[in-house]
Design brief:
Elements (H helix, E strand, L loop, with lengths): L8 H6 L8 H10 L3 E2 L1 H6 L6 H13 L8 E7 L3 H10 L6 E6 L6 H6 L8 E5 L6 H10 L5 E5 L4 E2 L2 H12 L7 E9 L2 E10 L4 E4 L5 E4 L5 E11 L5 H17 L5 H9 L6 H12 L15 H16 L3 H15 L3 H31 L10 H14 L3 H13 L10 H8 L3
Parallel strand pairs: 2-3, 2-5, 3-4, 7-11
Antiparallel strand pairs: 1-11, 5-8, 6-11, 7-8, 9-10
């Protein structure tokens, strides 16, 4: 791909007179470009307005022929999916040019069901693969059987919402050339959670899956870039304790298989964050994070996307365990590259907030001790002045009910006292008066 196929609608409309497409197909192109986005493409293929670039772009658009659509191979690996697979196949709406199903050891009649003429009109190719504790090997075997221009990987429980638009979009994209470094994400909608994951590649020999579990595409010709296609896949949460335990074993094996790629270390720590101890996290990570594990400074830190994410998990765990000095060391490692990331900002200001809370708690404790030493005297200010400050500290220290009681009494008595509450704090405390 030499030209970014994500075009602005304004540019297309402005140059419509040069575009040799019917009105219907032109409107379709305007609709399709709204489905695709890519931060990576924006970085690697900057917008250009020179005449040569515009001419090349228009030439590509004029070659788009929706009557000669790209071919798509829908690829599955399955095991004991008789009850879920048919609904996934139905969502393809007959538009997949071929369906590859690789069975890894079903005993529920999945293969027998798919072999019947009523369930298979000839578009489904069935294969068997001996399971070897490696999802990537199974998926790579399945992909090797695909003949379509594009490959889309499905799980048996997944249903795509708009396969027709996807096929039209891939037809449009293919005109702009090959995508040997791009993996296309789709939206996975699972219960209340939506996330993006790489589902589609052009059928090129450079692509292969890696990872025994939580497998992902790699390209033999360079780092993978991502583009997002705004089409949903509806999925199910079928997590069980047995599956979690099995996936954890595969993750630990993958960490040993791929020691230079911290993707799987990150996923293991993420998936087990609540149960893993901080000391275990450090023992598991530090040999992979630093080129010299005995000297864990910034110069020895192996900076990468997943290494940074591992450090973010360490920072959160350090906060939970009160290891503030560790938190600050981790913070220094990634501050230059993570300063504008949501997770980093959250952790940075969580520490600041904890310090504020600690100071408030210490101040409140000191104030209560001082109050115990009060003797009867001729004070200049009403005791309500002191009670107002105390009530404010109680609120800030996490005792809103006691604070509310004190302030309601103070305001109810119409006492003369300084109020350190903001308007919103006052509304919170006195709103139900």
């Amino acid at each position: 791909m030499k030209i970014n196929p994500i075009l602005k609608k304004e540019w297309l409309v402005e140059n419509q007179k040069y575009i040799q497409q019917s009105k219907a197909d032109f409107k379709l192109i305007l609709k399709l470009i709204e489905l695709i986005s890519s931060n990576d493409w924006e970085k690697f293929y900057p917008e250009s307005s020179n005449l040569l670039h515009c001419k090349q772009t228009i030439e590509c658009i004029n070659k788009v022929n929706f009557n000669n659509q790209s071919t798509i191979s829908a690829v599955y690996i399955v095991k004991n999916e008789r009850d879920t697979l048919l609904k996934s196949l139905e969502s393809l709406n007959g538009l997949a040019d071929e369906i590859i199903i690789v069975d890894t050891g079903s005993t529920d009649g999945t293969l027998e069901m798919l072999a019947t003429p009523s369930k298979n009109d000839g578009s489904i190719s069935l294969y068997s693969f001996e399971w070897c504790d490696d999802f990537s090997k199974a998926r790579n075997f399945a992909n090797s059987k695909a003949n379509g221009d594009w490959i889309i990987s499905f799980d048996a429980d997944e249903k795509i919402t708009d396969f027709k638009s996807l096929k039209l979009l891939l037809t449009y994209l293919q005109i702009f050339g090959d995508y040997p470094k791009t993996v296309f994400n789709l939206n996975i909608v699972r219960d209340e959670i939506t996330y993006k994951t790489g589902k589609i590649i052009q059928n090129l020999p450079c692509f292969s899956y890696k990872g025994r579990v939580h497998e992902t595409y790699f390209s033999a010709v360079g780092d993978v870039h991502y583009a997002n296609i705004d089409i949903d896949i509806i999925s199910q949460n079928r997590t069980t304790s047995e599956k979690v335990e099995y996936y954890n074993r595969l993750l630990l094996l993958t960490i040993k298989d791929e020691p230079l790629n911290l993707r799987w270390l990150y996923l293991y720590l993420r998936d087990n964050f609540d149960s893993i101890k901080y000391t275990q996290m450090k023992e598991l990570s530090h040999n992979y994070l630093f080129s010299n594990s005995s000297n864990r400074n910034k110069e020895n830190f192996k900076e990468s996307y997943y290494n940074v994410r591992v450090i973010l998990l360490h920072m959160y765990k350090a906060l939970q365990n009160g290891e503030i000095s560790d938190f600050e060391k981790y913070q220094q490692l990634i501050s230059d590259v993570a300063y504008n990331q949501t997770d980093y900002i959250f952790l940075k200001f969580t520490l600041k907030l904890l310090r504020i809370q600690e100071r408030i708690s210490n101040d409140l404790e000191e104030m209560l001790i001082d109050c115990c030493e009060i003797e009867t005297d001729n004070s200049i200010f009403s005791v309500n002045y002191l009670n107002s400050v105390l009530a404010t500290y109680l609120l800030l220290d996490g005792n809103p009910q006691k604070s509310k009681e004190m302030f309601r009494k103070l305001f109810g008595d119409n006492s003369d006292f300084p109020c350190f509450l903001t308007i919103s704090m006052k509304e919170f405390l006195l709103g139900n008066k």
